[in-house]
Amino acid sequence: MKLIAAMSGGVDSAVAAARAVEAGHDVIGVHLALSSNPQKYRSGARGCCTVEDSHDARRAADVVGIPFYIWDMAEEFHEGVVENFLSEYAAGRTPNPCLRCNEKIKFAAVLDRARAMGFDGVVTGHYATTKQGPMGKTLHRAIDISKDQSYVLSVLTIEQIAGAIFPLGDTEKVDIRKEATARGLSVANKPDSHDICFVPSGDNAGWLHDRLGTEVGPIVDQDGKEIGQHKGAYTYTIGQRKGLGLSVPTIDGSPRFVLKIEPKTNTVVVGSREELAITAMYGEKPVWCGPSVTSTPTQGFVQIRAHGQALACTYYFDGRQLVANLESSLLGLATGQAMVIYDGDRVVGSATVCETSA
Amino acid sequence: MSIYLDHAATTPMVGAAIDAMVTQLSTLGNPSSLHTPGRAARKDIEQAREELSKIIGCAPSEIIFTGSGTEADNTVLKGFYWQGTKQSKKVVVISAVEHHAILDPAHWLAEHEGAEIIEIAVEKNGVIDLVQLQELVATRGKEIAVISIMHANNETGVLQPMAQVVEIARTFNIPVHSDAVQSFGKVSINFHELGLTALTLSAHKIGGPLGIGILVLKRGLELPALLHGGGQEREIRSGTLNAPAIVAFAAAAKAHIPSDEIRQLRDHLIAGIMKAVPDCYINGAGDRLPGIVNATFPGTESDTLLLLLDGEGIAASTGSACSAGVQRPSHVLLAMGHSDRTARSSLRFSLGATTTRAEIDRVIAILPAVIERARAANLR
After folding, report:
1. What is the ipTM of this complex?
2. Largest separation between any pair of C-alpha atoms in chain B
3. Nearest Cβ partner of B326 from A28, A70, A113?
4. What CATH number is given to the structural domain containing B347?
5. Which of A60, A173, B306, B371 sits CB 3.0–4.6 Å from A14 for a disulfide?
């Protein structure tokens, strides 16, 4: 096949490209420039958007022996990921930008462009696997569960999964580093990236403050009684305990948690740990990674964080929302996060949490 | 079949230059040393300097060897500005389509040294607005430290009316510099006949080696140095003289560039492009370099075109790339009235001495399919 390898400048995408070449594919390396004003150097754990990273990607492509180009996706990234990130926070939700990036950039803009140019698919260094079976090509967890990235890939449609190649899903991360060393890739020991790539300081709250402004508002308890003030509701996340700065203690001295963020009234609602508990979640804008979920309740698992636990549940689609009823209750779930449904290790689909219930 | 159509970026070294360079590489001696080997190296350099001076139309002593065209541009622009400030001349005049080697030092001077940069606009055809220049000189002539207008544009090949620029500047005795990196060797240039104050040249655009440039600077003029040290080149440029590169520069300059043949191939390419892609248009008109074709293909992205052509073994070029390698809309095309979108849909093919008709035919043949794919891949 003729493939585009998306090369961030990290070890994973470098080895993925090398493996694709070895598998006999005709591969071209592409580094996505996602910032119109890139930093010169990588700092900390944020890395894929600096000039240094694009240099690393270029050198990896040299070692692998494939052509290398840079694609300017800054405009698409800003519109599809950064603006979405801001508007979600402004609306009191907690978005996952990596998921949006896969949905809007890597497997949409890049894959569409690649296909139009005559390529068959896109290779990435994501830790996930695909399988060919009676349901067609399906998306599954990686062998290395600690690195599994199927959660952030759960926004891929069947069409997109058909054009996605994940050569690393069958290998443990530690072995990928060894393989990179053996292949002579200089990025073999480059640290993993963790933080949000477009927040160069790593200070999310500060970054949001700069862009959304600081509007002081009340922190109230479940009865609506004001017990403190906040500096911008959007910097809080449901389930958050630290940094509330409340001066009125609870009667029994138990800690308070953020229960709800109401952007319209700029109010943060806090309450006890018990009040955080939910047993059902509802998601909008569902994407199915295989056969569509029906209205028939089905046993499975739901995952609500990139590296969180899979929680046993019964799920169904009521024609409007994806619903997951949990077997045991869960403490704190922010709206805006993705709820990803698994059938064993297969990703069934995902939706954006818009509501929860106790 | 690998087809190289990026000769304006760099072009193959000619055999005579390679021979001269290799011979000199095995010759011992620092040209500034006083002993026999030193003097021998110096003799080779001075011989090369004289040969070059005849071709350029300047005195040998007017040639200052630099490490690149960029260095020559920086030296001349900053130097004339700093000289000018002594007489309260703080205006630096450039064109809107200068190479970054002029554009960036100019803006650096504005940001760090208090210069006022005035850009002369270009017409749609890429030629500078002489009326604007005339009016500017008439009203603010006494404040102008230097005028720097490129001889030919590197992206479109459009030649600028340097004789008229010199004429306009004469009334106030304003120094006029021209970056002739692209045009030297391809169209006739004579430093003295043009009446220029300074001129920038580079070896690797005419079949010489990388890493050697020339600043031609009128006799008797002094400029502050950027590089201080041994004072080798008129105290304006220090650094051990690069004898192998200098002799190779002279050898390349003496070699004939078949400009007429290149011009014919260029016209053949333009005709072919227009026929293959009827809605495309050629950027720049009037007097142009023989080897450059800059075309806009509406509905495409130039980096997609470049990738697809590269996949077919054809090396072309987009405008200028930033340090991260990301394509930016060319400031040259923007100055000529393009929008961001159409500037980003443009490609430069540049032909050289090694270009053949078969290569051009192959490009013309492959172009429709490449354009079609690029249009499909344009999601914006």
Report:
1. 0.86
2. 68
3. A70
4. 3.90.1150.10
5. A60
